User: Fold this.
Amino acid sequence: MCSSDLLIYLKIFVMLVLLVNLAGCGASISKDLESQKWEFTAQQVKQPPSTVMFDGKHVTFIKGDNCQTYGYKIKKKPNGSTQLIMGKKSGVSHRAPIKTFEIQKSARSYKLKPTNKFAKHYYGEAKLVPLKDANSE
Assistant:
């Protein structure tokens, strides 16, 4: 085997490894979000924090006896950032105002930076903190 063939195989291998890693980022965030309850705080929300639970394709916000469920998905962007997309009811659809955030892990919590006008208007900058950590502060 000549060195140019080896170089081509090496490039293909590196590209496959990067592709697998990038595809797994959204999945690992989803698994982490689904693994526990979260406290959700947002800049534009003047009420006490909500408890948030993720399961499969849905996120539920709980405040007292009131709860709202939205569809959600995690999407890896070409620039390397990860996006959290939330829509109303059973899924992310064109009939409901979609709210999009850039989601970044920060220690054990997640920072949510709004990336569309609905997310900016309804929430502003937001944060998800594991409920057990939020209660110990």
The radius of gyration is 18 Å. Residues 52 and 61 are 5 Å apart (CA to CA). The first strand starts at residue 37 and ends at 42.
